Amino acid sequence: MNTKRSFTTITAIFAVLLSFGQAPEGFKYQAVVRDAGNVILNHQAIGMQLTIQQGSIGGPSVYTETFHTTSNAYGIVNIEIGTGTTTDDLSTIDWANGPYFIETAIDVTGGTSYTTMGASQFMSVPYALYAKMAENVSNDLVDDADADPTNELQAVSFSNDTLYLSNGGSVYLGNYAIDTQIDSAGIATLGFVAGPHTIDTDTDDQTLSLAGADLTITDGNTVDLSSLQDGTGTDDQNISGSGLSGTILTIGIEGGAPETVDLSSLKGEGGTDDQNISGSGLSGTNLTIGIEDGTSETVDLSSLQDGTGTDDQNISGSGLSGTNLTIGIEDGTSETIDLSSLQDGTGTDDQNISGSGLSGTNLTIGIEDGTSETVDLSSLQDGTGTDDQNISGSGLSGTNLTIGIEDGTSET
After folding, report:
1. Please, what is the average pLDDT of the chain?
2. Which of 194, 203, 284, 344 has the fewest beta carbons closer than 10 A?
3. Which residues are registered as beta bridge partners of 277?
4. CA-closest candidate to residue 364, choices 173, 356, 394
5. pLDDT digits (tens, 9 = 90+) for 293-334
6. Cα 56 from Cα 198, distance rounded (Å)
7. CA of 382: how far to CAs of 224, 324, 378, in Å?
8. Are 1 and 45 in contact (CB under 8 A)?
9. Whole-angstrom Cα distance, residue 145 to residue 39?
10. Which of 93-97, 226-230, 292-296 has the lowest mean pLDDT?
């Protein structure tokens, strides 16, 4: 037999048990058993544990009772609270000191591995039990140290949701809810499906999801959004047909309408936004920087100089000792540099011109312990093997003497 079951609805219907006119010692409890598909589980063995809590849901337990029962052909279980297995005494509950709540736990396999399904507040049933206290008083069954059966009698009245006794004392009944359905929070935590007579704690929240161009809502339909894009699976568009004409900027987009923006307000009268540096100058150590059609700024440069109005410093304390060159500066720290690597070991860096000569128009220049260089001088002469030039175009005009040279510029 498949033992996977769900106790999906617990509609508690309470009724006082009357016994030949006597005060009630219990009340009935009825519930419906369904599976996760909301199908009634008839003729199903059920284990139940009922706990009465004082003050609030989860408050102190004043009475606990267990039952082993079977659902009928309609999936209904009927039990009588006060007739199950318990070590507590239902008659000791002080119903005037409420409110009271009943917590339901079940095992749909008929065992004792109970799962808490929720709790619900009592309404009027327990107050029939509370009335038994008045019956005991009227029959003088209360141990009050006298034998008078009438001296404790009081009149009971009800006004504005409050029950009053004529000699004092009252109970406010407005806090006791009419709805006796068990809270479905416990059912929801087990993943059960809510059925008839349960408090619906679900919401109408739905989730949207997008797969490709299909937009889907949970428990609903799907909308094809492909018509909103370019068929490639994206809605990308290229900038196209844009340009600048004068101060008019045209911005175009693929498959759309271009927009035109007038940029004339961003430029000056000359067609540009250029600005000239204007009105700048140095006064003492104050540097003023000005800009065309703008506000000038003045910067104090006194911290950059020596107090004389300049930042000049003199070379001071410098000298050469052997191959060590000391460089000193006014009001500063001197530096010493070893120059020995620059000379030939004799104490100097003198080198002789060696291996030089002229061959035709090629001049070879040689240096001691170095590499010679050859220079072509042909561009300096007239092609005849010399660089001779003739005086040409010279003359005297008044006191102005003009001297001219071949292939050159005259001077006056």
Report:
1. 74
2. 203
3. 291
4. 356
5. 788 889 888 777 766 656 677 888 888 887 888 988 887 888
6. 20
7. 90, 51, 8
8. no
9. 59
10. 226-230
Reported residue count of the chain is 412
Residues 50-74 have pLDDT tens digits of 999 999 999 999 999 999 999 898 8
Strands 286-289 and 281-283: antiparallel
3-state secondary structure the chain: CCCCCCECECECCCEECCECCECCCCEEEEEECECCCCCECCCCEEEEEEEEEECCCCCCEEEEEEEEEECCCCCEEEEEECCCECCCCHHHCCCCCCCEEEEEEEECCCCCCCEEEEEEECCCHHHHHHHHHHHHHHCCCCCCCCCCCCCCCCCEEEECCEEEECCCCEEECCCCCCCCECCCHHHHHCCCCCCCCCCCCCCCCCCEEEECCEEEECCCCEEECHHHCCCCCCCCCCECCCEEECCEEEECECCCCCEEEECHHHCCCCCCCCCCECCCEEECCEEEECECCCCCEEEECHHHCCCCCCCCCCECCCEEECCEEEECECCCCCEEEECHHHCCCCCCCCCCECCCEEECCEEEECECCCCCEEEECHHHCCCCCCCCCCECCCEEECCEEEECECCCCCEC
Sign of CA dihedral 117, 123, 128, 129: positive
Give residue 230's pLDDT band: very low, low, confident or very high (50, 70, 90): low
Identity of the amino acid at 349: D
CA quadruple 177, 181, 182, 183: dihedral positive or negative? Answer: negative
Q: How far apart are CA 117 and CA 192, in angstroms?
A: 10
Cβ atoms within 10 A of the Cβ of 231, count? 8
The torsion angles phi and psi of 227, rounded to 5 degrees, stand at -70, -15
Burial of 134 (0-12, 13-18, 19+ CB in 10 A): middle
Can you read off the two tokens belonging to residue 23? Answer: 């005060």
User: How many other CB atoms are found less than 10 A from the CB of residue 180?
Assistant: 18
pTM above 0.70, yes or no: no
What band does 87 get if pLDDT is binned at 50, 70 and 90?
very high
